[in-house]
Amino acid sequence: MCGQYVTQEDDSAEMRAMYQAVRKAYPDIDIRSGDIYPRYTVPLISRGQWTDTLLLGTAVWGFESKYSSEPIINARIETVRNKPTFRDCFIGGRCLVPANGFYEWSPDKKKHLFPSTGGALLFMAGVCMKTAGGVRFVILTQAADNTVIEVHSRMPVLVSISNMRRWIWDNEYAQDFVKKILP
Fold first, then answer.
1. Using an 8 Å Cβ cutoff, are 127 and 93 in contact?
2. CA neighbor of 138 nearest in space, from 63, 52, 36
C-alpha cells in the first residue's frame, strides 16, 4: 500500500458516529477526514481498558524513524511478528483503522481508489504504540488479491467486523490469521 486512504463522514452512519465520538472526546485535536495522509490524526480502534473491550480513540499515522525524516507508515504482514520495530506492537498493540477505501498507485503513477462496497466500512489491520507524543500506528500490508493485483502488488490487510475483537485481543487468533495470509 502506498501512502493514502480515505474516510468520508457522510458515506456511512458508522463513520459519522466514530468521528462525532472522537471529536467530542478530543475537542482540541485536529482529527482529519477525507483523504488521509501520513502524520494525520485519525480515529483508531484498539484495546480497551478491560479484557475484550474495544477503545475508539485517535492516533497519528506513522511511526517515527531514526533513519529517515519520513515516518514508517506500513508493515509487511510477512515480517511484522519478527522485526524489532513491530514485534512488541504485534503482541500487545494490534489495532484497526476504519476507512471507506484505500488508494494504490499503478506503475505508471495513476492513483486508483478501492472503495468499500455497499456503504460498509473497511477495517485495516494495524499495530500501534504509545509514545510521548501520543498513540501512533502503522497499517499492515499483504500481497495484493485479485481485485488489486492489476494495479499494485501490495494492499492493506483487511479484518472483518466479526473478527475485530479477536484480532485486537486474541494473540493465538492473530498468529493464525497471519499464517493464513502468508503464501
1. yes
2. 63
Nearest of 137, 121, 129, 131 to residue 44 by alpha carbon:
137
CA angle in degrees (0–180, nearest 5) for 138-51-90: 25
Task: Give SS3 for 9.
Answer: coil
Amino acid identity of 16?
A: R
Q: What is the pLDDT of residues 104-134, one digit of tens each?
A: 999 998 999 999 988 799 999 999 999 999 9
Architecture of the structural domain at 5-181: Alpha-Beta Complex (3.90)
Per-residue pLDDT tens over the stretch 37-80: 999 999 999 999 888 899 999 999 999 998 999 999 999 999 99
User: Where do the domains of the chain lie?
Assistant: 5-181
Query: Which neighbouring-strand residues pair with 101?
Result: 6, 115
Q: What does the DSSP assignment read for 81-146? A: TTSTTTHHHHHH-EEEEEESEEEEE-TT--EEEEE-STTPPEEEEEEEEEETTEEEEEEEEEE--T
| Exposure letters 118-155 (e unless 16+ CB within 10 A, then b) | eeebbbbbbbbbeeeeebbbbbbbbebeeebeebbebb
**Could you tell me what percent of the chain has a pLDDT over 70?**
99
Strand order in the sheet with 101-105: 34-36, 5-7, 101-105, 111-115
